[in-house]
Amino acid sequence: MWTVRSRQRMTCANEQRTYAGSRPIRRTPSESGRRWWWRSVTAAGLFLLVSSIGSVVQCQTFIRRTANVCRTDDECPVQAYCERFNTIHEYGVCSCMAGYFAVTDSNNTRRCLRAATDIGDYCLHNDQCHYTLSTDSECRDNSCQCRDGAHYVEREKRCYKTNYLGEYCRLTNNCIGNDTYCRDGICVCTPGKHPNADRNRCLQDAKLGDQCFRDEECVTDNSRCAQESCTCRVSHVLNENRNRCLPIVSRIYDLCEESIQCLYNIPYSQCRITTGTDGITAGRCTCASRFHEAGYKCVSSVHLNGICEVNDNCIDPDTACLHGRCRCIDHMVEVDGICSGTFRPRFHVVPILLAIIVVGRSYCIS
Fold this sequence. Notes:
Shape: rod-shaped
Largest sheet: 3 strands, antiparallel
Strand content: 25-35%
Helix content: 10-25%
Radius of gyration: 48 Å
Number of helices: 4
Strand order of the largest sheet: 3-2-5
Number of strands: 31
């Protein structure tokens, strides 16, 4: 009885070639038989080697031939047949049928197992999955699945190493999720889409006012999805051009870009844009015209004798709101439109005295 050690079969896409790499093992004392067998196997090996020259195949290696020398198919394991090198030789080697390959069991015996054709196919050995789904697959619970750190690409029917959005990649198939591709070595979404929070899926861009169902769909900074529409968050306000969300100002003199930021919390305020001596332009919330700041609020400015509501309305010195009007405070009197603590008569004494003297002299002469 003669047996031949393993010969290997390499498969890549639709191309299949058989490579011989065997040597005989002596099982008979016959010298002539040994020489005949050596010549036949060597000739077969050279034939197969020459037929493969010119092709470079880089792919997974699978064993197709078993360790059995045969004369008929009945002498081979299940799902195997007797493969002969040519018609002139009586003996051949048992080879697995198309779609099957040889695996070694725990008892060191070989049998032919069917190669998986799709994800989820039944399996007993990892090689059954590797044959079609790539080495990034495995036989898990008797089912072909992508191994941890890999994902299934439907259009390729294969498993690929997983790269998340924003990570380095070599192939577009490495990028997980639909509408993704590898650009300049980085996994990105196609135009008009953006990554979700887990960076494993691309979401359609939704701008302010667009329909949405989740916050992560809204692409404008500081926006959220409320009532199926992208709006600004509660801490921000929509700008005048309705394309940005600006932070709401809480106190007077805080930084701002537009007046709407100030008016939200501070009535009668405005955003005043100024350019400093260093050339930097910045805005701060200040009170609008005819208003002034009092207690970090903007109140209307009222002069002496004007109508008022509270003391803060009265802007002139030493004035207060008395009975609905700005008046001079206690012990102060109004003099020429201002409040003063010194009494000033409303008429001139010297001209009056001169008039009395003149009248008196006229009376004496008469």
